[in-house]
Q: What sequence folds into this?
């Protein structure tokens, strides 16, 4: 068991990017009992891998005795965060946002402990949606310099297509979130991905200015801390596949697909992911740094199991692991990704291999499917496909169907419903 403090451990795991005051934040978090928050805008009906790192950091700090505040963006989602985007976010209705917030609550509860006041869940709709616009401008907007706002990194990617006045308000709203939580609940630290640094600084500055105006003194201290984004060794954001985002909702990304995503990451990324995303002891991870070849495959299995266990529970993690082993040892397993075709997908009760690869989401187009066959990387029903004329009948797809594979890592069971 390590005696390392929680702040030191976050640093050792390579998680911390920027802090407003390292000494104060270290004392705050290592002492326990500090309330900190991370905001989650409800732009979809599920959290995804991009959120997972933040949930894991919240859990690290919670295990050290601090109190996470999971802030649902019921209000800020109405505007949309421009950070890192080149286009404007889709406008959602209040009903869509409320539904998405409920989905977030369920998924966060799998990772964070909400019992006995160990974690708080708030919604910024409670203080944002009923604001008086003129009063807000006078009491909050007066503390913001437009020149400084426009110089912020979070707005730069929006210049080419134009930054709307709607989006310009996002920084002010996020800063106001911090101020309201500071005032109402004594939340003293805001955390987030490194792309949120400008917004977080705006919040600490607003708290200082508002409390200074109220007291006539120097203003209260509030803090900010950002974390490194989860990137591949080539600098790409993790959590994207050919089929789209890797979701935490098992209905959108099955536990097996979630397991396989981590099982199939590049060798160059596996140890960094284990260090950043799992709760394995650092001493154990350090021993893995010398692993090569088949040992790296073992490291990927460890990573995949640990994260599937964290997000979906031990039973689903074990099922995913067993399914993967069965598949790669020539066996079969009912838990693998499955696509169900209908009679309308067939022509004269048959389907050709190129269409089948596209329907199974193993290739984005028939031209890509043709290249995969030409390169000898396609297998169906345990046989290598050598020609484009290969077809499958309705009878072959009935019952348990067939397993179609593209390369070593991509496969799907296809059945006729």
A:
């Amino acid at each position: 068991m390590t005696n390392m403090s929680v702040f030191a451990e976050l640093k050792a795991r390579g998680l911390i990017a920027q802090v407003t005051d390292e000494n104060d934040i270290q004392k705050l978090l290592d002492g326990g009992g500090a309330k900190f928050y991370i905001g989650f805008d409800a732009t979809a009906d599920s959290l995804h891998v991009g959120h997972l790192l933040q949930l894991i950091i919240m859990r690290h700090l919670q295990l050290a005795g601090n109190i996470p505040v999971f802030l649902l963006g019921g209000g800020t989602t109405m505007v949309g965060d421009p950070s890192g985007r080149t286009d404007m976010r889709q406008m959602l209705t209040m009903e869509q946002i409320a539904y998405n917030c409920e989905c977030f609550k369920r998924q966060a509860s799998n990772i964070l402990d909400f019992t006995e006041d160990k974690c708080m869940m708030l919604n910024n709709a409670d203080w944002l949606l009923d604001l008086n616009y003129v009063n807000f401008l006078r009491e909050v907007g007066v503390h913001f310099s437009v020149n400084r706002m426009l110089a912020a990194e979070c707005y730069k990617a929006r210049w080419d297509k134009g930054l709307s006045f709607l989006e310009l308000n996002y920084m002010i709203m996020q800063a106001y979130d911090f101020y309201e939580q500071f005032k109402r609940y004594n939340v003293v630290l805001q955390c987030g991905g490194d792309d949120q640094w400008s917004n977080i600084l705006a919040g600490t500055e607003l708290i200082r200015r508002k409390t200074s105006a109220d007291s006539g003194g120097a203003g209260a201290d509030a803090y900010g801390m950002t974390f490194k984004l989860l990137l591949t060794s080539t600098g790409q954001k993790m959590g994207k596949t050919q089929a789209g985002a890797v979701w935490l909702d098992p209905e959108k990304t099955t536990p097996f697909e979630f397991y396989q995503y981590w099982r199939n990451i590049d060798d160059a990324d596996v140890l960094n992911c284990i260090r950043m995303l799992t709760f394995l002891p650092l001493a154990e991870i350090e021993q893995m740094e010398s692993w090569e070849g088949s040992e790296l495959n073992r490291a990927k299995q460890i990573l995949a199991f640990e994260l599937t266990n964290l997000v979906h529970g031990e039973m689903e993690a074990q099922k995913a692991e067993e399914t993967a082993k069965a598949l790669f040892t020539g066996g079969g397993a009912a838990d693998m990704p499955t696509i169900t075709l209908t009679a309308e997908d067939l022509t004269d009760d048959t389907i050709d291999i190129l269409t089948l690869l596209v329907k199974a989401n193993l290739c984005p187009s028939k031209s890509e499917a043709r290249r995969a066959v030409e390169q000898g990387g396609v297998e169906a029903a345990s046989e290598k496909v050598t020609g484009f004329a290969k077809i499958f009948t309705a009878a072959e797809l009935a019952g348990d169907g067939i397993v179609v594979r593209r390369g070593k890592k991509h496969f799907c069971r296809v059945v006729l419903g």
